[in-house]
Amino acid sequence: MSNYHIKNFEEYFHVYRKSIRNPENFWEEVAEEHFLWRKRWDNVLSWDFKKPEVKWFEGGKLNITENCIDRHLRIRGDKTAILFEPNDPKEAAEHISYKELYKRVNKFANVLKSQGIKKGDRVCIYLPMIPELAISVLACARIGAIHSVVFAGFSSSALATRINDSSCKMVITSDGGFRGNKTINLKSIVDEALLKTPCVETVLVAKRIKSTIEMKEGRDVWLQPLLDKADEECEIEVMDAEDPLFILYTSGSTGMPKGMMHTTGGYMVYTAFTFKNVFQYRENDIFWCTADIGWITGHSYIVYGPLLNGATTVMFEGVPSYPDFGRFWEIVDKHKVSQFYTAPTAIRALGKESVDFVEKYDLSSLKTLGSVGEPINEEAWHWYNDNIGKKKCPIVDTWWQTETGGIMISPIPFVTPTKPTYATLPMPGIQPTLLDENGKEITGNQVDGRLCIKFPWPSMARTIWGNHDRYRETYFSAFENMYFTGDGALRDEVGYYRITGRVDDVIIVSGHNLGTAPIEDAVNEHPAVAESAIVGFPHDVKGNALYGFVILKETGEYRDHTNLRKEINQIITEHIGPIAKLDKIQFTVGLPKTRSGKIMRRILRKIACDEIGNLGDTSTLLNPEVVQEIIDNKID
Ligand code: 6R9
Question: Where would I find the AMP-dependent synthetase/ligase domain in this sequence (predicted)?
Answer without folding.
Answer: 71-462
